[in-house]
């Protein structure tokens, strides 16, 4: 039994079929398959008949059906069906975007056995000139070709033999605001909340509260945007992080963090708690006036959660009105860490508070904040072992 349908692709209309081949006697599972890329219905039906012949010839229901994949894009579609069940929706969207923008335009219509090492090398060279993440793009190509080898569609993976261009040198030093710069930013944002206009006051308090929380909690921006009021204990002055805001094909939704270490409960200072409490009152009143309800701490007037880019655009505009140079939202997390270290907090405590998976990660990121540490270490050794 088979169903034949048409579908559209960039260069025209094609035919595909999905068929049921029976039940595997060993596992009891239904065996079905799909074939795509036929120019006519007749061609698709001929392929279906040949599939049945080949299938029975190879042992019927006790053997795997022949994989009729010829082009890179057909392989990608087959691979994606299985791979998409192993990753989060936000990760899947990122992968699809890389293939759509960078990989499929170069290799989509090419036959798998015709992709040469030279063609792979040319593509990698071009990606390296315009993409900081060219190595990631190359790795996905290599992963697909390895999959093709496992399906016995090709004999070798051309992407394994490419010479990777040297990555662009990056400034690995983290960027953060000094204590005085942070104070300037917060003072200015707070001054903008003094307005008789309730709508304007609500808008300004949003950015004041968000920046204050980021700087005094060390939260990642998407952790902050996923917060609900139930995550905040105003009596104990604590905040629980258990989710992050992820982008999906249908908008935004909270999802679990990538690592267990990101799930944590941290203490907050009294002033930050006061600001959050005031924001809760202001925000719920404005939502009520707009006929909306939401338990999300940072949502818009329509109770929708949004991408942080729009919020940063507004925050950047406000910071630019001071003498401080805007960086990005993540800089407030780095600022929080620098203030913790300056106040004498241990590396282990910082690791736990920031939700790093290991203390090595914390050290790798923040060691350069202490340029004099090596000199002090040697001085301590010389003073202790004075012989």
From TrEMBL:
Protein name as catalogued: Site-specific integrase
UniProt source species: Enterococcus cecorum
Annotated family: Belongs to the 'phage' integrase family.
GO BP of this protein: DNA integration; DNA recombination
Swiss-Prot/TrEMBL keywords: DNA integration, DNA recombination, DNA-binding
Residues annotated as domain Core-binding (CB): 70-149
Entry-linked InterPro entries: AP2-like_int_N, CB, DNA_brk_join_enz, Integrase-like_cat_sf, Integrase_catalytic, Integrase_recombinase_N, Integrase_SAM-like_N, Tyrosine_recombinase_XerCD
Residue ranges annotated for the Tyr recombinase domain, each copy included: 172-379
One Pfam family this sequence matches: Phage_integrase
Any one GO molecular-function label of the UniProt entry: DNA binding
């Amino acid at each position: 039994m088979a169903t034949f349908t048409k579908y559209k692709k960039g260069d025209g209309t094609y035919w595909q079929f999905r068929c049921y081949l029976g039940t595997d006697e060993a596992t009891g599972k239904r065996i079905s398959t799909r074939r795509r890329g036929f120019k006519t219905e007749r061609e698709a039906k001929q392929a279906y008949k040949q599939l049945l012949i080949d299938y029975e010839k190879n042992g019927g229901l006790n053997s795997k059906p022949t994989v009729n994949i010829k082009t890179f894009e057909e392989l990608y579609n087959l691979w994606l069906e299985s791979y998409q069940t192993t990753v989060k929706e936000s990760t899947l969207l990122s992968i699809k975007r890389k293939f759509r923008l960078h990989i499929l335009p170069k290799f989509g219509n090419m036959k798998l056995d015709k992709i040469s090492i030279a063609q792979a090398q040319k593509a990698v060279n071009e990606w390296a000139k315009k993409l900081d993440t060219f190595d990631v793009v190359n790795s996905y190509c290599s992963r697909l070709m390895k999959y093709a080898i496992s399906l016995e569609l090709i004999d070798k993976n051309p992407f394994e033999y490419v010479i990777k261009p040297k990555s662009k040198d990056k400034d690995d030093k983290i960027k953060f605001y000094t204590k005085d710069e942070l104070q300037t930013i917060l003072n200015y944002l707070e001054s903008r909340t003094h307005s008789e206009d309730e709508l304007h006051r609500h808008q300004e308090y949003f950015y004041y509260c968000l920046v204050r929380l980021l700087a005094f909690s060390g939260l990642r921006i998407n952790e902050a945007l996923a917060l609900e009021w139930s995550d905040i204990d105003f009596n104990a002055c604590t905040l629980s992080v258990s989710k992050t805001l992820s982008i999906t094909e249908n908008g935004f939704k909270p999802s679990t963090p990538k690592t267990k270490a990101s799930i944590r409960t941290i203490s907050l200072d009294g002033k930050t708690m006061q600001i959050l409490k005031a924001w809760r009152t202001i925000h719920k009143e404005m939502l009520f006036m707009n006929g909306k309800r939401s338990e999300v701490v940072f949502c818009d007037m329509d109770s929708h959660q949004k991408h942080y880019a729009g919020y940063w655009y507004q925050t950047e505009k406000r910071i630019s009105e001071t003498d401080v140079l805007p960086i990005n939202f993540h800089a407030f997390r780095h600022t929080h860490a620098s203030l913790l270290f300056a106040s004498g907090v241990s590396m282990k405590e910082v690791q736990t508070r920031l939700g790093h998976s290991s203390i090595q990660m914390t050290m790798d990121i923040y060691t350069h904040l202490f340029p004099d540490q090596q000199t002090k270490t040697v001085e301590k050794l010389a003073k202790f072992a004075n012989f």
